[in-house]
Amino acid sequence: MHTAYSATFQGAGLWIGGPYGTDNWDDQNYAQRGIDLANGFAADGVIDDPSNLSGNPVWIFSGANDPLAQPVNQVAQKEYYENFGATVSLVVYPTEHKVPTIFATSDEYLNTGYDTVGVMLEYLLTNLQTNPISSLNAADANYNDNGVLRRFS
């Protein structure tokens, strides 16, 4: 959605993926394939001009030991966005095909003390060209009772 509606969206937080429109992760040139695909669709008027991605913050997460979505995929995603001038942060965390969190209650997510969502939101919200909020408060450890993970002010 970030590429297709780049005139609307000002940033993206991405997990376990590859460049725009790619589905063959065995193709070593798939960063370039995504670039070509986005440029072609934009030229045909199907999506917004990907040059709108310039200056957008993009935060990408990868599990260093992920056997399904290996970090090389997120590296290609980073190359894709950098090609269009986005400001990219690639986080490679020592985990498998799981999302670390400080709120984990099962093994589906890893309670490692790393606040993946909080780190992503802080990066995105403090790097937007137009900052929609003045601050991002600390995570609420009592989120079950309060019903929110983060409060914006």
How would you summarize what this structure contains?
The chain has 153 residues and is an alpha/beta fold.
Q: Give the biggest beta sheet.
A: 3 strands, parallel
Radius of gyration over alpha carbons? 17 Å
What order do the helices and strands follow? EHEHEEEHH
The total beta strand count reads: 5
Mean pLDDT: 81
Q: Helix/strand/pairing class, anyone?
A: alpha/beta
The number of helical elements comes to 4
Low-confidence stretches are: 147-153
Report the β-strand fraction as a percent range.
5-15%
Number of separate domains: 1
> What share of residues is helical?
25-40%
Instruction: Measure the end-to-end span.
Output: 26 Å
Global morphology: globular
Largest sheet, spatial ordering of strands: 1-2-3
Question: How is this structure best described in words?
Answer:
This protein has helices at residues 30-43, 71-83, 116-127, 143-146, and strands at 12-15, 57-63, 87-93, 100-101, 110-111. With 153 residues, it is α/β, with parallel strands linked by helices. It has one domain (12-146). The strands form two sheets. A three-stranded parallel β-sheet has the order 1-2-3, with helices on both faces. Strands 4-5 form a two-stranded parallel ribbon. The longest helix is centred in the N-terminal third of the chain and has 14 residues, at 30-43. It is globular, with a radius of gyration of 17 Å.
